[in-house]
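Whether sequence alone determines local backbone shape is best considered at the level of individual chains. The sequence in question and its structure tokens are set out directly beneath this paragraph.

***
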Amino acid sequence: MLSCRKKSVTLIELIIAITIVSVIILGINSISIFSHYHLISSDRRAKL
């Protein structure tokens, strides 16, 4: 007999998924901050 089991997300899977999403968001944010800093820096050098 085939048993009908509900698919559920375990706590460990949820923590891992949240961690991966957080790392991706932090990576995108750091790239944005890095590029913004260098854009301002190069703009200041161009004005000198």
Q: What stands out?
A: Residues 33 and 44 are 17 Å apart (CA to CA).
